[in-house]
Amino acid sequence: MAVTPPAQRIWWKEPIERVELIWTVLAFLWGLTMFATMIVWHVVGKQNLANEAYRIAPATFMERTEAFAKKYKVREEGKSGIPVVRPPAGQDIYMLGRLWEWWPVLELEKGQSYRLHLSSVDWQHGFSLLPININIQVHPGYEHVLTITPDQTGQYGIVCNEYCGIGHHQMTGKIYVVERQSQ
Amino acid sequence: MTAVDAATGGARAVRRADFRNCPFTGLKVDLAAQRLIIANAVAAVIFLAVGGLFGLLVALTRWPAVHLLPAEWFYLVLTGHGANVLLFWIIFFEIAILYFASAILLNSRLATPKLGWLGFLLMVAGAAMANVAVLQGDSTVMFTSYPPMKAAPHFYLGLILFAVGALVGVGIFFATLVIAKEERTYEGSVPLVTFGALTAAIIAVYTIASGAVILIPTFMWSIGLIGYIDPLMYKVVWWGMGHSSQQINVSAHVSLWYAIAALTVGAQPLSEKVSRTAFLLYILFLQLASAHHLLVEPGISSEWKVFNTSYAMYLAVLGSMIHGLTVPGAIEAAQRRNGFAKGAFEWLRKAPWGNPAFSGMFLSLVMFGFIGGISGVVLGTEQINLLMHNTLYVPGHFHGTVVAGTTLAFMAATYLVLPLVFQREVVFPRLAKIQPYLFGIGAAGISLFMMGAGTLGVPRRHWDMTLADAPIPYEFSAAAYLMMGLNGMFAILAALGGIIYVVVVVASVLAGKKVDAARPVWQFPVTSAAAGNVGKYGSHGTVKLPGTIILVGVFFVAFMLYYYVNWKYLSAVWPLR
Questions:
Q1: Per the CB < 8 Å rule, is B273 touching A132?
Q2: Per the domain annotation, does B355 fall within a domain?
Q3: Which residues of B touch A77 (CB under 8 A)?
Q4: Of the candidates A12, A124, A174, which has its C-beta nearest B146's C-beta?
Q5: ipTM score of the complex?
Q6: Does residue B220 lie in a domain region?
């Protein structure tokens, strides 16, 4: 019984039943397969989160994002007058999370790659791009640089999915993806 | 050596323990241990009641058609929900399990019951202090309390006191093992359940150490002695506590599965060696599992993530998959010996489904594997985590493990603890009979619908999915709203099961008929057929286990399909590198 001492004192010398042995081997091989799948995806898969990150002072990141927004701003949007920024394809682009907005709004071209710099200037935030459901943790003091390639046009919402205080549920943002313009 | 021992042993004042004899199991029960088990179990149930109520309020607020609480209260109550059920309910109950698995199962006296009471008081004081801090409203930082968000100092201090108290309890467990061995209160090796509890205790030491390493500096930061806590470093260490504590739960509730199977149908392990090795895998490969929580963080390399999330071989998952065969296998073997040998599943059909200890245990086993287990491995896959991190999928997953798995197993065990330790008959037996089903189905619904909402992008810890107050609107799909409504409904069902549990326990303790030793409500071992088999080891001579093989086969296929379906989903999102 499981609640009484094992009948055979030297329990590690017990024989193993065949059904247990087969299942253990099968489960072990499945574990190896799952481990290998992650590595294989780094080679053949197109969705692997970037390892590029830097320490950065929040004030510095804010300055860079503001300079970027000023340079490529095309219009303003909504009650808050948040800038909509349309950088040239292939550019470094910036987005910051702060209490409580994702800033600025980006307008990107379909099929083009961009180096997206993500950081927070106050607390931790959760960058959640919807409806495609890409979710990345954003830390103050860490600048995460990932190369994204939007492959469909449309309006994408960003919500915050790391709790960041009483205005957490007001924290949203937006990315437009538009057709590529002929040069 | 012997002489020295004898000399000091003679001089040492050994506590004279008072024992009673258990009329059902024949075990000697140390009354001091019994009192401590009762105190810890009662405290656990009180914190479950508080935390469960908070949980219901959370679910009713997230049900868009109800949207019960205002925002400040929602976030406050959510913080309290996490601390009360994930920490206080579970760890109080685990301390009771540790005392049971050491002193009671080993026929021994408990080491230093006075220190046990000190530990208990520290835990009560810490839990109360953290609750006060949360209810005062200036510690709404969620259970994880990620910096730079800061709680009131007594929030961290409460958690630290609670952890110190728990550590005292774990120490007493170890000391009791030593005493039992020295005083030869049992023959041979410790029982499997005690072995499982030992793995839980070892993981608990690691867990509490991680908690100390991160919470003490954070407390000092909150009173101004330390200037800066790096948010990424905090998460790495905090999850050394946060995730490892869940491995304590797994070890504890798997031990209870074995214990309940033994006490209800007379199950014995198929082989001690395989089951014990599976527990050892937990110790060796689970406790650094903080990696699962850091898969989409900046500044941590893919190599680190891939290796640490899987330890190259998923050996901890292997441990759970082994228990997934050996627990139902032991039950099937026992039931077949008990005379239910027709077809592949007579053993399961004719199992004691009316006994809440058995039904709760089996539901916990199935749901922990199918819901909590599979979703956990998928969620913890380096790249796939991108699709789910911090969405409602995450609470969906851990309600499958901690609620449908651990909590339900603890509830099931309570129906044995009431007659065996409290020596009370269960009042309202008919309510008790349906309780595991209500709670289990409710918990399964909560888990599945939150996971569904998460795959549609609904964020966790979020007051308003309509985003009505946000300057830039976003509209979630109608399916996401449906999921949240269903989540609310199943939360009501689970809450009903939870209320019945609390009422049955409290009423049984206060007003239950004292168990009459001459007229046992309990038969142990359960049948004479099972009794005849006690003492043999292994499944040699027992029949084959076709039912269990079919069950694990279904599990394996479901696991593989769901795993690769999620890679398919991942391949459809924006390319990124």
A1: no
A2: yes
A3: 472
A4: A124
A5: 0.96
A6: yes
B201-256 pLDDT tens trace: 999 999 999 999 999 999 999 999 999 999 999 999 999 898 888 989 999 999 99
Q: Identify whether the C-beta of residue B366 lies closer than 8 Å to the C-beta of residue B351.
A: no
What is the band of B402 on the pLDDT scale with cuts at 50, 70, 90?
very high
- Give residue B272's domain range: 32-571
Tally of structural domains, chain B: 1
Q: Which amino acid is at B284?
A: L
Structure token pair of residue B4: 């020295």
Q: What angle do CA B69, B72, B73 make, to 5 degrees?
A: 45
Query: Phi/psi at B22 (nearest 5 deg)?
Result: -75, 125
The two beta strands, A92-98 and A114-120, are parallel
B-chain residue closest to A49, CA distance:
B577
| Tokens standing for residue B195 | 């072995």
- Which residues lie below 8 Å from residue B230, measured CB to CB, with a gap of 6+? A141
Residue-averaged pLDDT of chain A: 94
Contact map slice: B 375-414 vs A, CB within 8 A: 377, 381-383, 386-391
Does A20 contact B536 at a Cβ distance shorter than 8 Å? no
Q: Model-level pTM? A: 0.94
B549 touching A (Cβ < 8 Å): yes
Smallest Cβ–Cβ distance between A148 and the set B540, B544, B576 belongs to: B576
CATH number at residue B338: 1.20.210.10
- When the pLDDT of each residue in chain B is averaged and rounded to a whole number, the result is 91
User: Edge-to-edge strands of the sheet including A105-109?
Assistant: A73-77, A82-85, A105-109, A172-178, A154-160, A125-130, A134-138
Question: CA B412 → CA B11, B249, B357, B406, distances in Å?
Answer: 44, 15, 4, 10
**Is the Cβ of A56 closer than 8 Å to some Cβ of chain B?**
no
Residue B391 near residue A126 (C-beta atoms within 8 A): no
Binary contact (B314, A49; C-beta < 8 A): no
pLDDT value for B544: 81
| The two three-digit tokens of residue A62, written as one number | 């804010």
Q: Inform me whether the pLDDT recorded for B258 exceeds 50.
A: yes
Pairing of strands A172-178, A105-109: parallel
Q: Do A24 and B298 touch (CB under 8 A)?
A: no
ω before B23 within 30° of 0 (cis)?
no
On whether any CB of chain A is under 8 Å from the CB of B541, the answer is no
Contacts of A166 in chain B (CB under 8 A): 71-72, 75, 140
B12 assigned to some structural domain: no
3-state secondary structure (DSSP) of residue B350: coil
Contacts of B574 in chain A (CB under 8 A): 47, 129, 132, 134, 148-151
